[in-house]
Amino acid sequence: MLIGIDVQCPELPVVENLELVSDNGLQGWGRKVTHECVQGYSLADNSEKMRTCQKNGTWSGETPACLGKSEQRAGLTVVV
Length: 80
Fold this sequence. Notes:
Order of helices and strands: EEEEEHE
Largest sheet: 3 strands, antiparallel
Mean pLDDT: 82
Distance between the termini: 32 Å
Strand order of the largest sheet: 1-2-4
Low-confidence stretches: none
Helix content: under 10%
Number of helices: 1
Radius of gyration: 14 Å
């Protein structure tokens, strides 16, 4: 697979209670990163664990969000 180092995606935002757990180390499009919530938190239902730097210089998916137990009890859906 060809990787385009001339196409760069912006740095991913820092999200509370979210950790970067793997990064394939590539620069530019084709870079894949995987996130997980810290202990005691779960991904919100619209959050994706893996995001990819696309050829157009944007990240796939949406910025993940982590919900704590009190937020889960409030009726918000989470992915575990």
